[in-house]
Amino acid sequence: MSDMILLGTRKGTVIVDRSNAAWHPRPILHAGIPVCYAARDPRDGTLWASLDHGHWGPKLSRSRDGGTTWEDVLSLKYPQGARYIVKYLPTPDFDPAAPVGQPEYKDATVFKIWNLAFGHADHPRRLYAGTIPGGLFVSDDGGDSWELNRPLWNHDSRGGDLFAGEATSENRWFGTPASIDYGVFEPGIHSIVIDPYDSNRIRVAVSSAGVLESADGGRTWQNRNRGMLMDYLPNPEAEWGHDPHFVTGCSGQPDHLWQQNHCGVFYSNDGAQTWKKVSLPEAGVHFGFPIAVDAQDGRTAWVVPARADSERMAIDGGLYVARTTDGGQSWQALRSGLPQHDVYDVVLRHGLDVAGDRLCFGTTTGNVYLSEDRGETWQCLGNHFPPVYSVRFG
Amino acid sequence: MPTVKMTRHLFRFFPALENRPITVPAGSVAEILRAVDEIAPGFTDYVLDERGALRRHVYLSVNDTIVVDRETLSDRVPEDGTVYIFQALSGG
Q1: Which A residues, 9 through 48, put their C-beta within 8 Å of a C-beta on chain B?
Q2: B92 found inside a domain
Q3: B42 and A74 in contact by Cβ < 8 A?
Q4: pLDDT tens-digit profile of B52-83?
């Protein structure tokens, strides 16, 4: 089990260490800079933070000495010629069936580096990063240089190869509200799942398009939204337009994948070939952002339910984590140690993590809670953190 | 030679630019910024995006005139000009 927790917060990176049977936060790092994701590479111990500078553009920051010193990595950029077809926020009279007009193109620039994933043991220096506007970047040198995955960028579902010229198909990816802060309405890749037994099998989740899988190391990508249902477009089973909030997989049973979606909780036990909705709205398990899965048992997962959809806060003023141990057939509300009155917290998509028997989550209200018994009981690590964007065990 | 002045927020990332006059050869705003980048490598990644356009909340003026061409930074900076780089801060 890990003795380090990294928090990405609105005001910087906070590392919380366990020593003498207690957890101690260090002084804030990257002070004043929003950090949308922070994590530790388990292969070499490098710490990473994705800085979401409001003014100076997104940057990656890297520490190779456990967090004492950090260096900027400035090499994650869209290549010349990378374009996308602009999307606009749907207006009240939006008609998804209306004929599509002439595409409007825009040169791509990175708005947000939303998450990072660390490569397979086969590729000890490989890293993945997902961005708004919907780029998957890969580094094979420990983050010194990055390359856009062009097959995904050029996918037919996005208009085809716009490096080569005009669109050859329709752009069927929608934007994510998370992009509105940057003055756009473009998609974002927030989840990257590398199969621990097959480094060529990569799954990404996109708001708002859905899940895509590559079985050949990123050379080709396939839609993996079968069984997905949405409640905001006329066809709930449409091929594209789904809004996974976060997707994660069981490292010991990689065919078991979980998805907290805008429209419910979904589970797959066949490697994302099909998804099954396992929400239980009467138990509050439906809307939310994060999801975590046990490393050994692919049927065990945790979510932090929130009130859907426009209110986005704890349900009925009480904070709880819901756990299933049977693939989503039943859910248990875990409340011991969590506040049950006058609570308005919400946990964002990267704000929950599991490592062995330990779980930790952080809220946009700046509260951080830890369980060391798989969610049965919780302790508070602090009530005065900045709004928390990500929680990852180191 | 034109002078470059900037918000001190940038000195946090580029201490090499602090407590010194910054003078660079006259030219377009783009050329001026490239010259600053030679003093402090990585500087342009903070004020420009990968297309070379000014970032959304970054403002730049030549003397008291806000730069017009935010995309290619073609505005000219005269020999005796001063380039000011600042940003729009807001919120908490």
Answers
A1: none
A2: no
A3: yes
A4: 999 988 999 999 999 999 999 999 999 999 99
**Cβ-nearest to A78 among B50, B55, B58:** B50
Cβ–Cβ under 8 Å, residues A274 and A259: no
- Token digits of residue A164: 């080569």
Nearest CB among B42, B50, B88 relative to A109 is that of: B50
- B11-19 long-range contacts, CB within 8 A, separation 24+: B13/A56, B13/A72, B13/B42, B13/B46, B14/B40, B14/B42, B14/B43, B14/B46, B16/B40, B17/B43
Of the candidates A72, A109, A110, the beta carbon closest to that of B42 is on: A72
Tell me the three state secondary structure of residue A193.
strand
User: Does a structural domain hold residue B76?
Assistant: yes
In this structure, what CATH number is given to the domain that contains residue B48? 3.10.20.30
Domain span including residue B45:
3-87
Q: What is the ipTM of this complex?
A: 0.91
Residue B90 has pLDDT above 70, yes or no: no
Q: Count structural domains, chain B.
A: 1
Per-residue pLDDT averaged across A18-39, rounded? 96
pLDDT at A181 over 90: no
Task: Please tell me if residue A55 touches chain B, with a CB cutoff of 8 Å.
Answer: yes
pLDDT at position B46, please? 96
Summarize pLDDT for A204-214 with one digit per residue, the tens.
Answer: 999 999 999 99
Predicted local confidence at residue B36, as pLDDT: 98
> Taking CB atoms and an 8 Å cutoff, what residues of chain A touch B88?
55
